[in-house]
Amino acid sequence: MTDEPILEMLSVDEAAARFGRGPLPAAPYHDPAWWEREREAVFLRSWIHIGHVCEVPEPGSFVRREIEFAGASLLVMRGRDGQVRAFHNACRHRGSRLVDEMSGKRSKLSCRYHMWTYGSDGTLLSAPDFERFHVAREACALKPVATEVVAGMVFVNFDPQPAQSAREFFGPIAAAMERLPVARATCFTEWTYEIGANWKTNFDNFQENYHLRFIHPRTGEQALGPENPFGYPTHYGFLGPHRGQRLWKNPDPPPIPDSLRLGYARVGELACREGLDFPKTDFKLFPCFHVVGLPPYQNYTHTMYPLGPDRTRGQVRMYWTAPPADAWAAFSREFAAVAIRDVLSEDREAVEASQQGLAAIDEVHFQDHEVLLRHLYLEVEKRVRARGKTAALAEVAA
Amino acid sequence: MSVLPDGFAALEPFAGLWSAPDMAARAALRDAVGDAERQAFHAAMKSLVRPALERLDGKPLDALDPAERLLLALVLAYPHVAMAVEVQGGAEVRHAALRRHMRITPEISPPA
């Protein structure tokens, strides 16, 4: 199956007619003041992927996540009731950081400063001489962050009352993701990076194929052919703020190196043995999450966390439903990860160079096959403008 | 006595250097060694990687004996070297500078 029933698939001309043509201001890619508005309007009000349930397999398991755009340290923890929750990593007494470890397992969390002690569901269990505080114990639970699990992935939203649940926000994409290996993952391969680029500059790189022949002359040659020298997708897909693309299939690809052929030789068989369905997938979920599924064993997620107006942290994960059963599985996974990491590494210089010049130009130009970049730009802009209006109205009302 | 299973003695000269414990270490090894070392390992492994996989096939990883585990480590180092030699070729050194920014998380990345 493909994503076609889920996203509205448009030809390049139909997409351009829908979303427009012409230059757009460059400031949203570098301006600190715009970034601050974007942070408020988008990142503090959207569902953000921060982990997977397999990282907290048992009651008391936790991971710590530093979310720079929110200035927050979060604990993602599984409670005794089996539910996965996220809390601020801060004691409700006077804000002390509760946990330093990146991950672990505890039945209780105690603040070292005055021994306020919390359960795995965040409730305050005990605090020395608590009656002197003259406050209800319930008011002193760890401060929660809206948390939802979709397809095994943990999403948080810093809005105390999100306008939509994550499942509502993702719409039918949520059900599609439930069919991916990630939904049943027990482990993953991960690599992370930091890059000197705005999060949109970085994400945009993965939203167009225009650069393939120039930046990936070796690793991308399978995707190029005489009848499609840029390897453009055949269709672009849209669902509200989310988007995707249908890749062109090269009818006469150049031969791949022998070892790569060996690396992919048994992935179909292994996927069947592991009971995996690998639908062809490309979901670019608003704001900063990319779910990619190509042939078996080339599924990965890519999350781009903004660190500021011109810096981003990326996290790439290949999720697996079980540890490798044997040498072939281990070899095939290693090959897939090495190949994908090689490709993604190649974009770095171009993305950073692009960021460095953005302040010198007033406008950016998107061609028709960069319509996904335009779509992300417009979706962000819409939210920033709407938030600006809301804030202005609130100011007037006050 | 060979440290590798029968039939793989030709790989013994590489067993010390190329038996890194996890994916992060194998990726770092690819970056750290010189082109001549990558080429030599690639040349030795290329015709033996499939026989090695067939030798290890079907056996759970935790049931491998020490010689088989060492052979598996060499098999898992091969994708890194194959990408360097067969795909990146002359661009490998420049590519390594970009790749180093992609830090593999060692403690959670399988396998073996």
UniProtKB/TrEMBL annotation, chain A:
<keyword id="KW-0223">Dioxygenase</keyword>
<keyword id="KW-0560">Oxidoreductase</keyword>
<keyword id="KW-0411">Iron-sulfur</keyword>
<keyword id="KW-0408">Iron</keyword>
<dbReference type="Pfam" id="PF00355">
    <property type="entry name" value="Rieske"/>
</dbReference>
<keyword id="KW-0479">Metal-binding</keyword>
<dbReference type="InterPro" id="IPR015879">
    <property type="entry name" value="Ring_hydroxy_dOase_asu_C_dom"/>
</dbReference>
<keyword id="KW-0001">2Fe-2S</keyword>
<protein>
    <submittedName>
        <fullName>Aromatic ring-hydroxylating dioxygenase subunit alpha</fullName>
    </submittedName>
</protein>
<dbReference type="GO" id="GO:0051213">
    <property type="term" value="F:dioxygenase activity"/>
</dbReference>
<dbReference type="Pfam" id="PF00848">
    <property type="entry name" value="Ring_hydroxyl_A"/>
</dbReference>
<dbReference type="InterPro" id="IPR001663">
    <property type="entry name" value="Rng_hydr_dOase-A"/>
</dbReference>
<feature type="domain" description="Rieske">
    <location>
        <begin position="51"/>
        <end position="156"/>
    </location>
</feature>
<dbReference type="InterPro" id="IPR036922">
    <property type="entry name" value="Rieske_2Fe-2S_sf"/>
</dbReference>
<dbReference type="InterPro" id="IPR017941">
    <property type="entry name" value="Rieske_2Fe-2S"/>
</dbReference>
TrEMBL record, chain B:
<protein>
    <submittedName>
        <fullName>Uncharacterized protein</fullName>
    </submittedName>
</protein>
